[in-house]
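Entry 14. Ran structure prediction on the chain below.
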Amino acid sequence: MQANAGTGPRQQPACGAPAHSPAHYKSEYILIHPRRNTLPEVPPIPDQTLEVLKEIPTQTLIDALWVKNWPQSYIEGARPLQLGQKMAGRAVTLRFVPHRPDLAADKPGGDQSAEYVAIELCGPGEVLVVDAMGWTYSSIGGDIKFFRLMQRGVGGLVTDGSVRDSVALKEYGFPVFSASTTAKQGPAEFWPWQVNDAIQCGGVLVRPGDAVVGDDDGVVVVPRSEVDEVIRIAHQREEVEEIVKAQLEIEKCSPGKYYPFNDNTWELYENKTGRKRPG
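Output, structure tokens:
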């Protein structure tokens, strides 16, 4: 099984050796499956932008994405393993597929297995996003596998499946968002198969390098080409909502006068700020 179409097998960095820069998403590990990679060349999201995203509530990001006509952005079922943690990072993606006996002949083993390849692409600015097809009976991994994520200082882990060894994962400290926890291992049901291709997770398309943002309310995916504009809209909406709340305190009226945003909202915004409503 080749790591990329048209190339020979590549050597994985030895344990403890530096992995290839996670900023370069079109690495030799871009795909475990031999389909040609067609992801666009877009500059990675800067770390300072991730810090800005981390401080924006996920619900505000969803509203901003809705304005941009991106309605599918919230990963269904991905709940925080620990409350009170904020997460923002560039997506490294991993797809699981249903187990079949003949899969073993094509699946790389050892540290060339897809999950380990994906983990080595992760660092403090990355979030590992795992498509488990929504299966929650068995786990995508636990204590030993994700110990390496802790060593690499990963920005977070997100899956629409289950993790196990939840006590150990909490001690590792990095944010984990999963649909459930379980005691059961996964190989009898599904196997890790493909790295850094477009995947679904909880009904949302995730492409390598997208921004993945999480807080107590769940996880939102922001397409990396839209990040700057989404941040601008989100900050504006936060400002408008503060103005609306202050006005509701004065008027003691129904929120429906100003929310959802309407002509009354924008007239109030213009009066309070001296700025025109957005076009």
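Confidence is low (pLDDT under 50) at residues 1-36. Will compare against last week's run tomorrow.
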